[in-house]
Amino acid sequence: MKKDFSNINDSNKNEWPKTVWITGASSGLGLHTAQALAANGFTVVAGARSFGKEKTVSGCRCLPLDVTDAASISGFSDQAMKIAGTPDVLINCAGIVILGACESYELDELREVMETNFYGMASMISKVLPLMREQGRGRIINFSSINGLLGIPFEGAYTASKHAIEGYSECLALETKPFGIEVMLVEPGGHRSSSKAYRRYSVGMTDDSPYKKAFDLGTASIVEYNSVNGSNPDELGQKIADVLKKEHLPRRMIIGKPKQRLSVIMHSILPSDVFDRIISNYYIKQ
Length: 286
Ligand SMILES: NC(=O)c1ccc[n+]([C@@H]2O[C@H](COP(=O)([O-])OP(=O)(O)OC[C@H]3O[C@@H](n4cnc5c(N)ncnc54)[C@H](OP(=O)(O)O)[C@@H]3O)[C@@H](O)[C@H]2O)c1
Fold this sequence. Notes:
The chain is of the alpha/beta class. The chain has one domain (19-283): Rossmann fold. It contains 8 helices and 9 strands. The chain is globular and about 55 Å long.
């Protein structure tokens, strides 16, 4: 018989899934997702570096967490286990962006983005997998992006990290299915949530860079689009709460505007020179 978790908020609160650990929950989509999950009756343990200092999220247990630091991950995991027990769901949302031309990136900038977005995610997964295997079930949701499916100019470091997440997650899903673990990728388009604090510019993007003019046009259109026309982050949070109440997770959830979803389809069917022209015209418009 099919199990449906859609009544988790009402009479059946002991049903699985119940306990969610979420990283990067102090701001942006992680914050909105944590709030939506708490409002839907999930037990949410939220992690971010700024928890334990000034920030907190109502309805969630907030613990300090730096996903790039093994000791911090262990501390978070130990505390979270004490508070809420084995996680039924891990949501990896922590992420940073450094905008720049591929040629402009310092190796340390590329490493920093990969450390947070990819290695940080993989470290969290390594931490929870033994726990989930032991309980014979679990769900892992990795925040990728539309950038995990196609490239956007001047987001090379971020796009590389999100492509890494995509490939890793597909392998993870195949390997962990026999242990009752499901893996889902969330691929948001631009949302009205992203904090400028996590959106930096490569130090190599100097005024005399040959890419500067295109870079300024491209980044202005990204920032302007997200802040004015970006999707609603509360709706994304609710979509994640809703999908977690289902018996099975889809492999991917693209959450964005129709033209962002269309860009993914066009990327897979159009010849690359045609697609490149469309993307360049859209972002750079020189
Ligand atoms: N917003 C969008 O339009 C959009 C679109 C596509 C994909 N995404 C993805 O969605 C996720 C959230 O992005 P956002 O733009 O909404 O969020 P954001 O406002 O940029 O916030 C980033 C979050 O990551 C946390 N974080 C950064 N480094 C961390 C670390 N080392 N350890 C633990 N936490 C860390 C930050 O908290 P602390 O500083 O407190 O640690 C913060 O809570 C990211 O994975 C991003 O790639 C967002």
